[in-house]
Amino acid sequence: MGSWVAALLVESGEKIRCLRRKESSTANLPPESPMVQWVEGDLLDRASLDRAMEGVDTLYHVAADYRLWSPKRGEILFSNVSGTRNILEAALEAGVSRVVYCSSVAALGARTDGIPIDESMAVDRQSLVGEYKISKYEAEQVALSFADRLSLVVVNPSAPIGARDIKPTPTGRIVLDYLKGRMKASIHTGLNVIHVMDVARGHLLAARHGKPGEKYILAGRNMTLFEVFRSLEAVTGIPAPTVTVPRGVVLPLAFLSEGFSRLTGREPMIPLEGVRMAKKLMYYDGSRAVRELGLAVTPVEEAFRDAVRYFASSGYLDSSLSERLLGRIA
Question: pTM of the predicted model, to two decimals?
Fold first, then answer.
């Protein structure tokens, strides 16, 4: 997401300074140029943030630890909450005039009745399942606490899909696992999908038109997991699973997967937090961003097509499957 925001800013004629950790991959990032300056730092290193913030007019805080599992308990919570506080304190001291803070719909909770959540609804704290969701909620509260001292706007993206998902993220993992034939069945859950480019555009629109202290949900289409699979089937020709299994069947497998990961330090094949999240429908209403910011929402079919093209052309799949997929979506 950050790479898309950076690219759009350069495209719009802005001179930008980008913060990255020393060990971060730069494969997605624009090269240093008269328009782009790269500086090394870390959200947990306040001194590096103070140096990076010198002379900055607008801050886009897009960095986050977006994982559903970590070998170290508390790591995701600490990184997201402390990192947000550190960079906003640095922005305040540097006299930054505008801040766009990238939160997440994860911070807004979820419902069981399928009613899409909007910005006016109170957050059901009990629905904040897992360390990632809790971290995004707590970090958002930290960000909003600066709204009386900074001209700060919050954006809450839903599940971004598209190119450059280098890690990949948990949402990109759904697409990649589908392409690799690992999705043998569906479970009854729902999520909101949005093209990652729309999320990046939403950041720039929030900087121009957003009201300080307000939140804007950046959301596309609400879909069941089965509908996601059917969309991927239409793009790829790979048959969607026809079996839906009860969440109670998957839960014990997730516990086993998580236990194995605690022993090996490797990411679980079935994240326990992901299965717990699936208990509620993660549906959201992004109409405010469309209405007040002027965000145009791309059809999700294009998001899936761009994600498939990226994974097929970037070495994530075997060559024969990649060739077949690229030939189909050319």
Answer: 0.89
